[in-house]
Input
Amino acid sequence: MAATGSAVGLGNIWKFPYIAGENGGGAFVLVYLVCILMIGIPIMIAEVLLGRRAQRNPINTMRHLAAQADASSYWQLIGWMGVLAGLFIMMFYSVVAGWALDYVVASAQGTFSGGDKNSVGAYFTELTQSTNLQIAWHSTFTILTVAVVAAGVTKGLGNAVRFMMPVLFVLLLVLLGYSYQQGNFMAGFNFLFSFDFSKLSGQSVLTAMGHAFFTLSLGMGAIMAYGSYMPKDASIAKTVCTVAFLDTLIALVAGMAIFPLVFANGIEPSAGPGLMFVSLPIAFGNMSGGDIFGTLFFVLVGVAAWSSAISLIEPGVAWLTETFNINRLAATGSMGLVAWLGGLGCIYSSDFFNFLDKLTANFMLPIGGLLIAIFTAWVMKRSHLNKELGDISGLSFNLWYASTRVFAPLGVLTIFVYEVYSLFA
Output
């Protein structure tokens, strides 16, 4: 549940619908699913495996396993990069989550009732240009996240996901039912599951790959940290496949809850990031019961962001508590403060916001995933891998091993080279 909470977040509800809209709907969804199956799942299994075998934080996990494999201590850089990536993502993530919290209040007050593009667009512009308001919401969200992580693995993370995930599922299903009743459901369905390959490009494939890493929380240390808390008798492969399935299902259901409302109101589906903060409030504001369901939608977004955010600072907190033996409250406060200060940078500079987004999604996460795959399949002893994945058949193990050893690294490397080339072309 914690790993699913980490995977299910703004990537599913905010990012997935608008990047699908920009890249050909169903054609993009197909590429995305292939990336999840061929690259995301194998690397996620590898990351969980590393964490459970060492039962340490990501940095100490890589140091310990490298020594166990008689390999260079430089492999611990995977752990460092993961911890930093989580912090960097938290910096801009909490700003966007703060926008969602603001919209919960605004929707409940009927601010968007009868709104049009000009009035709702002006509201969003005013919000994103108000440093004081953004700092207030960014601070609120950071405090909520820090409070859960500070409470510990069982009382904090465990109890939080037991509450958050059922609430998230129920809210999503309620909104899907509302979309079916009030929206143009068939238009949304056709858009999300029909194929427009003319809009697909090399950049689309890169976007799908980057999003697969982003949404599964790969390469940022969170999954490795959660793997370290995983019981030895639990099945890694089954758990990962369940998480990947639920994550993908929620992204698709979110799309089906959003696009029918978009089409029913004649709104452009490829409206970019503003799809959630401009287009959807217009749709809710002009529909029966829109204020109520608009409020529920942004509560959903907030809960999804919260469940993911706790995983973004957990790896750093685990490293501080295990390495320096400081109490969890102080460690969480330290990580929260760093993330909060970075969030201020994102509020004051959209360039810094965009830089962190691109740096993490297109570089740090894929590189982290690539190195995790290489270390697991090329450096670790195969007998150790067999021990951790002993519950699956020989054929399943060989398929995973081949994917992690060859196909996943090649896929990540090809797309990464394309991204680097596109920067200098």
Remarks:
- The domain at 2-424 is CATH 1.10.4160 (Hydantoin permease).
- Residues 194 and 227 are 37 Å apart (CA to CA).
